[in-house]
């Protein structure tokens, strides 16, 4: 039954329209057929991608609420691949600007800019999405793989990103976020939570990035005061890819071999993660380092708690000035936590019992590293702590079932 | 709108040479096409033009021009406003004119001069009861009709600067990409500050416009730029018209924090000593959007001066570099202290 006929039937009962599924196969005219399907979809509809390769010269976009874009898979012979290798326009492969959208089970390859960007798109799900720059880590790759921004309610799960010249999964200026069960490798930053609140980053594997998991708060943006971020039960290992970010970007300053990097922010809990072979530092906690004029901005890292984590080998080949002396002073490897020592008041770094680290013993944001006076971390461990439960609304998880 | 064909025929007499090719009976403008809920399949469904290939407007369709226009690979643009009978444009200070429901804004993109001129696409903005709708129409080779191109399209053409480019007709969503503010589609161009006093006076005379707004016509006429004259008003007008539809609060690039509107006075907001946020390789190795005195170290100019996807700004509607725009913004940054 077509939609109009169905509508006529349903009007009598005032029931909502049943969702339709629009299937798009790759092949001749696929780009136009797919974009038309995304434009003409009604709320609740499913746009289904057939298996195979969709060759695209322009970015796609979706601006209808409640649409599901679903492929046949993100990997293997039956994957649905959006191939942007020959892209000629637009800043990303797919742009989503509507609410309650579900993206699942397809891949995006070689977009010229970002992979999938969702802006002002509340309650969005990315599930089983692969974004790959197939040439490996290169400065000419796009910045972000999965890029939700200015949104409330974000769930990114079971997805894979590699090759991003900024962050594989980047959540910016958003709230109520879960990033769970993803694999991020060979990006400059594996996962980055920036200027966002209430984020749960859990059960991810971040490996072979320059830095694994980043939690940043930056000045001069419409949304600031990031915090209430939990990094829990992630594997953060072998993040040893030399930084390949284009210079000028904030992530270009991330040292090769960083496991977790917290810069500024209010409230970050790091617990129950497994760290292995992050040669500069498993965990780094610092204030914002650049000059700024934004009066709304707080550059300090506040209320950052390093709980119980499993720390393996690391800190043994740091990308730091004075590396040889530092290694000698600490017996061949730096302890797991690197702190700049900069505190606003009594709300600086907190650690659980048994956590070791070292401090640069700096005193104010922006101070030169040349003035560092490195020494062991001297903090009284917390007996216990409280931290709010955070993450995406339960309704998003329910939508995937 | 129903107007007697006889009235229209009278008006055609004044069109001189056009008359020879004109249809005997001009089309009736379809208000239903504008205000209905559908997407009309053909441009002629609206009846905006008496002679489409010559872009001769129907009664009630008023041509207009902007002091500083948006640059689109050097395309010639023919702009029109349609107002339903008995309605008016309402001035709102220097800002966007207020359009009644039922109004339409029509913009045709053409390349080539004289006999060689070819209409490529016509974009319409329709003011419906539940908001504005933006639709793209693509002209046929015979120049007799333009058909709805919901998914956009591409064609190769040669720009006035002599470059062969793959020209992109935007899809319906991409129309909104530039025309959205806070998620709603709005017009961009017809702001009083960017319209001429002469045109507004004509519209006032013919009762199309309710009054002459204070703050009108304050943006410079782009064609009047001179290397010897002031540069800042031209650069700021250019950035407003070409960039600020996205780079403003509520716009498509609001998350960048860059706000290039004409009225923005905060130096950091317009990019001066502002660090990039999500620029990726678009930063070009530079630390600031605008570094005073250093155009070659300014991200803003680097991206304007590129046609490479992923670097080039604007992201849409540009396949080549606007050399004059780059020159003006370059001079503005170079002379900045």
Automatic annotation (TrEMBL), chain A:
InterPro entries linked to this entry: Beta_helix, Para_beta_helix_rpt-2, PbH1, Pectin_lyas_fold, Pectin_lyase_fold/virulence, SCF-Subunits/Alg-Epimerases, SO_2930-like_dom
Domain Right handed beta helix: 75-215
Gene3D superfamilies in the record: Single-stranded right-handed beta-helix, Pectin lyase-like (2.160.20.10)
Pathway assigned in UniProt: Protein modification; protein ubiquitination
Keywords (A to Z) from UniProt: Repeat, Signal, Ubl conjugation pathway
Keyword Zinc: no
Signal peptide: 1-18
Top-level division of the source organism's lineage: Bacteria
NCBIfam families linked: beta_helix_1 (TIGR03805), para_beta_helix (TIGR03804)
UniProt name for this protein: DUF1565 domain-containing protein
Organism encoding this protein: Erythrobacter ramosus
TrEMBL record, chain B:
Name the record gives this protein: Repeat protein (TIGR03806 family)
Lineage, opening ranks: Bacteria, Pseudomonadati, Pseudomonadota, Alphaproteobacteria, Sphingomonadales
Keywords tagged on the record: Signal
Organism field: Erythrobacter ramosus
Signal peptide: 1-20
